[in-house]
Every structure is written in C-alpha cells, then in structure tokens.
C-alpha cells in the first residue's frame, strides 16, 4: 500500500493564507468598482482604468475587458517572473471578473466625493491584499517592471505615471473634465491605500551613522530601541584633498519610521555632530527586525 506524505504544515499554512488574501483582495476591489465607481462613471489608473474607460466608451462588459486586456501582461509575467505567479494572477483576475459579473453589489452613495475616495480606497486595498498573497489584479506593475529591466534610467513609478497621464487625459476627452478629475482623486486614494497595505505603519528605514562615539550610539540602539546594528570599518577623509584619513566605526541599523524620531533623539543626545544618512528600505526580515504585521 503506497504511503502519502503530507505537505509541511508551514507550506500549507502559507498557501491558505495567500489564498485568503487573494480572495479578500478580489472582494474588496469588486466592492470598490461596483459599489462606488461604475455608477458614477469614474475610472481608476492602470489596466483597470483602461478597461473601465473602454467599457464606458464602447459599451462592452467590464468583466470581459479585464480578462482580455490583462491576459498579455499575465503571459509576460509567466515568461519573466514564473509559472506560480502567473497562475495565481490569472486566477485572481478571473475571480475579479466573475465577482463583477455575478455579485449583486448595490450602489453605496450618490455623493461624488465619497464615491471617488472610498472607491479608490477599496480598490487599492484589494490590489494590495492580492499582492501580499503573491498575485496581481492589474497588469500595469508587470509591464512597468519589464520596461525598467531594459531601460535602467526609467523607474517603475515613472512608467506607471506616464501611463496614467495618458489614461486620465483620454478620460477628460471622452468622459469630461469633472469625471476625469474625480478619477484622478480615485487613483490617489487607491495608491495611498495600496501603499499602506504593502508597507503598513512600520515601513522600514535604514540609518547609517558616522560618529566618534559609535560605541555609545551602538549601546543606545541595542538597549533602548531593542534593534540590532552592523558596524562597518571605514576611514574619514578631510582636508583640501581628503588625504587625512582617520579610522571610524560606522553604525548601520534598520528601524521603523515610528522609531526614527527616537533614534535621532538618542544620536543627537550622545553626539550632536554625528553624521546621519537615512534611506527607505522596501522590506526587512530576520535578525532583530520585527515581522511586519498585516494592518
């Protein structure tokens, strides 16, 4: 009799968690679209915005357009990112299309400002939840990543911005100036909601500190903030030609943006002349960094 080996509990748990996040993302995005935006003829940015604009101008069903227009981007994702990502994204987009076609979601409010803001919030939350589950509901990010891969001078945000400028310009031409302006507000709300879902309140910041009192600063960070540090060996150059080299210990640590003011206060208390450099960290894991919670 053959024996079967059960998958590791952690692997099964991760799959269930990712599936739940994607399903919640689909429901949230469908609620934002059908409960707010569609009745007021507002659109979002990206591929979703293109689909919504074409649906209103050509009178075609939005559910079908979402599938058709996103399909090429899913294929690109399969070739460039991987099979699992493409499969999950295809199922997520198909789920969103089905939710829009089947779920009886009523129009929530006739107020245009509330429609733009809350419609954007729910759409952004849906996209963010799906991304945390390992899928996308909009193919724009895939296209932007592929373009920046071949053109290092262009950032992902630049590609998305340029695309949305064309989308909202077309919206102003076909739908009118007022719906286009409300649509821009919808996009801003969606972007903020997406950023919050992906980064949360505890977005990480890397801080590099150059000081003569590096040991005291290291102790303050580890004991008062409970954070780990990395010490680099460096040289400090000064003088007209920078040839007076002095050995320095350089402290590097990663904190959340809520902890950043406390860190700066401690460093300034120890050494008012300390040199600080801070940069945004997309994600951090392991060491003495807390696992980012899902807000």
Strand content: 5-15%
- Alpha carbon gap, first and last residue: 47 Å
The major β-sheet equals: 4 strands, antiparallel
Overall mean pLDDT: 82
Summing up helix and strand content along with how strands pair, one would put the structural category as alpha+beta
Rg to the nearest angstrom? 24 Å
Helix-strand pattern = HHHHHHHHEHEEHE
Can you count the beta strands?
A: 4
Spans of 5+ residues with little confidence (pLDDT < 50)?
A: 1-10, 291-295
Describe this structure in words.
A four-stranded antiparallel beta sheet has the order 2-3-1-4, with helices on one face. The longest helix has 32 residues, at 9-40. Helix 1 (9-40) runs antiparallel to helix 5 (112-132) and helix 6 packs across helix 7. By secondary structure, the protein is α+β, with helices and mostly antiparallel strands. The protein has helices at residues 9-40, 46-58, 62-80, 83-102, 112-132, 140-150, 156-174, 177-199, 214-224, 260-270, and strands spanning 204-210, 229-236, 246-256, 275-281. The two termini are 47 Å apart.
């Amino acid at each position: 009799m053959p024996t079967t080996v059960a998958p590791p509990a952690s692997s099964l748990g991760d799959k269930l968690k990712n599936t739940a996040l994607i399903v919640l993302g689909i429901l949230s995005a469908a609620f934002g679209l059908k409960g707010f935006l569609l009745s007021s003829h507002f659109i979002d940015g990206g591929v979703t915005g293109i689909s919504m604009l074409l649906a209103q101008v050509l009178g075609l069903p939005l559910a079908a357009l979402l599938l058709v227009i996103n399909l090429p981007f899913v294929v690109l994702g399969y070739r460039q990112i991987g099979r699992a990502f493409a499969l999950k994204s295809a199922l997520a987009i198909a789920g969103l299309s089905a939710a829009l076609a089947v779920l009886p979601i009523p129009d929530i409010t006739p107020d245009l400002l509330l429609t733009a803001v809350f419609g954007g919030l729910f759409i952004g939350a849906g996209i963010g939840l799906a991304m945390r589950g390992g899928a996308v509901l909009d193919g724009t990010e895939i296209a932007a990543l592929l373009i920046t891969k071949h053109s290092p001078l262009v950032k992902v945000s630049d590609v998305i911005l340029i695309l949305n400028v064309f989308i909202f310009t077309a919206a102003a031409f076909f739908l009118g100036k007022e719906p286009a302006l409300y649509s821009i507000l919808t996009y801003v709300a969606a972007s903020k909601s997406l950023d919050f879902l992906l980064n949360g309140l505890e977005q990480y910041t890397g801080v590099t500190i150059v000081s003569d009192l590096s040991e005291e600063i290291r102790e303050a960070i580890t004991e008062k903030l409970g954070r780990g540090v990395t010490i680099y060996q460096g040289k400090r150059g000064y003088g007209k030609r920078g040839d007076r080299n002095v050995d320095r210990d350089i402290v590097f640590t990663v904190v959340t943006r809520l902890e950043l003011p406390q860190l700066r206060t401690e460093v300034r208390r120890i050494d008012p002349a300390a040199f600080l450099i801070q940069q945004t960290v997309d994600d951090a894991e392991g060491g003495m960094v807390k696992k980012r919670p899902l807000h």
